[in-house]
Specification:
Elements: E1 6-9, H1 13-17, E2 27-36, E3 39-51, E4 54-60, E5 64-65
Antiparallel strand pairs: 1-2, 1-5, 2-3, 3-4
Amino acid sequence: MKPGESILILPSVALQEMKMEQLAGMKAQVIEIVESNNVIKGCWVKLPVPYLGEYEWFIPYNSFTL
């Protein structure tokens, strides 16, 4: 995974907890990968349409696939 690639947002408990489950099924473009101790935690993505007025959102690692 690298910036510029597309991901598919998947349904997950993490998205439900963040109250963002409506994003499931949407494709997004990776802006920045978030790591901690060489473990990918998730990524910042740009959505094709705004969600709650914003295009950029953090998506946890277990909530997307390439």
